[in-house]
Design brief:
- The protein contains five helices and no strands.
- The longest helix has 16 residues.
- It has one domain.
- 2% of the residues are buried.
- It starts with a helix and ends in a 12-residue tail after the last helix.
- 71% of the residues lie in helices and 0% in strands.
- The protein is mostly helical.
């Protein structure tokens, strides 16, 4: 293993841990490997000229805020709690 492969592995590990979790969520729902979903997004980016990146970000936003989307009028403890 050369220094470039270690760097690639560390970048891959970082993105797998720090990504929004959209691919992992879809893989869990579809009962397939996460890598297959990620590859699908990569291949779609070539075909759709990057429009799937916008779709990915929308899905990430929805996953992050799904509790507020499900219950928009839930009581909050303070005004500053969004």
């Amino acid at each position: 293993m050369g220094p470039s492969s270690k760097m690639i592995d560390s970048i891959k590990t970082y993105f797998e841990r720090q990504a929004f979790g959209v691919c992992e969520w879809w893989a869990h729902k579809l009962n397939i490997k996460t890598e297959q979903v990620r590859l699908s997004f990569i291949y779609l980016s070539f075909v759709t000229a990057g429009l799937n990146v916008v779709a990915y970000l929308v899905m990430a936003f929805i996953l992050k805020h799904k509790e507020r989307i499900k219950r928009p009028l839930a009581k909050r403890s303070t005004v500053w709690e969004l």
